[in-house]
Amino acid sequence: MIKVLVADDDSAIRNLVAEVLKDGGYSVLTAADGEEALRICQESHPDIVFTDQRMPGRSGLEVLARVRESDPMTHVVIMTSYASLENAIAALKNGAYDYLLKPFEDLDLITCVAQRAAQNVQLMRDKEQLVASLSEQNAQLERLNARLNDLAIKDGLTGLYNHRHAQETIAAAVGVAKLEQRPVSVLFADVDHFKYYNDTYGHQRGDEVLRAIGGVLKQTCRGTDLAARWGGEEFVVLLPDTDSKGALAQAERVRAAVEALSDPGQHTQPGGVLSVSIGVASLPEHADGSASLLWQADAALYEAKRAGRNTVRVAPDFQATDPSLATGVYRSIGRAVGRG
Fold first, then answer.
1. What is the CATH number of the domain that holds 225?
2. Are 6 and 22 in contact, with CB atoms under 8 Å apart?
3. What is the pLDDT of residues 243-269, one digit of tens each?
4. Of 134, 240, 264, 336, which is most buried, counting CB atoms within 10 Å of its CB?
5. Which of 120, 103, 109, 119 is closest to 21 using CA atoms?
6. Contact 155/229 with Cβ under 8 angstroms?
């Protein structure tokens, strides 16, 4: 129900307007002066205010200004005598919804002004609700789009980036590094003896290990780095603005953090711990592009496996003549000798 406040120091006028509005189906409050009107507005928040222009304490124009300041949706109707018509028009310019001249020639004018004001109030309410609804829908859509984007570029098990996104990001980062003549490095990590762990404890426990290692990568990476699950038990880390010395230090931090993980099944692993082997390659020291950079890191990882696992190796200073072919060769060799 629309709530209306009638403020007038003339009790006869105040009661007359209140009765007309009550008969029109409005909830009506009354005030005998401007101070009381403002107090009621603060407490009850009427939708429409009918206020006399001249009242003790505060004038109708002051009530108008204060009400509009505190709640722009409240509609204020100025009631004025013929002698104050010019002031009433000025009130309209200051935000009054309408004005009524006293004495009233026709009481239906009161009802008519109230109806138009009530309709406008309802339209404003509906608009506000619609805007709020649309804002919430937009927020939900943004959250959904963010979730869909995550699904497209994130690995569902570890929460790290997936293979495709990592490959695209590494290619872009290498392009920028070459253009700006800045270093960039890649770490290739592989969980040691992971097949043995899976065969011993099952794939569910194996997934827990992968999630834990993903957590290590998230904790040890800088905000500018990118950690991804390359596939299976393999992980890759992109280190922008990092040469081989810095990359080696980061690889050692990752290796040590994984070794420090506590797992009930680690005592049955060869070496008595969960561990990873890591290969390190940097541009321009070891490669001239993203494909050769990945190949060199993969080759270094293979050397870390050959060296006994749970260790880090840095790529040698040479270039691949055919990075895509060489990558496939190293993969085949690694799996043939049981790289895990």
1. 3.30.70.270
2. no
3. 999 999 999 999 999 999 988 777 778
4. 240
5. 109
6. yes
Measuring CA to CA, how many Å separate 181 from each of 158, 283, 288?
Answer: 33, 9, 11
CA-based torsion, 255, 219, 182, 154: positive or negative: positive
Q: How many helices (H) and strands (E) in the chain?
A: 11, 10
Question: What does the angle CA 221 – CA 223 – CA 226 come to, to the nearest 5 degrees?
Answer: 60
Q: What is the pLDDT of residue 149?
A: 83
Assess whether pLDDT exceeds 90 at residue 232: yes
How far apart are the C-alpha atoms of 231 and 254, rounded to whole Å? 18
Q: At what angle do helices 108-153 and 163-180 cross, to 10 degrees?
A: 80
SS3 of residue 98 by DSSP: strand
| Tens digit of each residue's pLDDT (9 = 90 or more) over 153-162 | 999 999 999 9
**Tokens 């392009």 -> residue:** 175
Same domain, 100 and 193: no
What are residue 227's DSSP bridge partners? 237
Instruction: For residues 87 and 185, state if they share a domain.
Output: no
Task: Report CA dihedral (268, 271, 276, 280) to the nearest 10 degrees.
Answer: -170
Chain centroid to CA 336:
46
Place of tokens 């390359």: 230
Same domain, 204 and 319: yes
Q: What is each CA distance from 37 to 20, 68, 95, 111, in whole angstroms? A: 19, 13, 17, 21
Residue type, 288: D
Tell me the catalytic residues.
Answer: 233
Looking at residue 77, what is its pLDDT? 94
Residue 133 lies in a domain: no
Q: How far apart are CA 177 and CA 289, in angstroms?
A: 10
End-to-end CA distance of the chain: 74
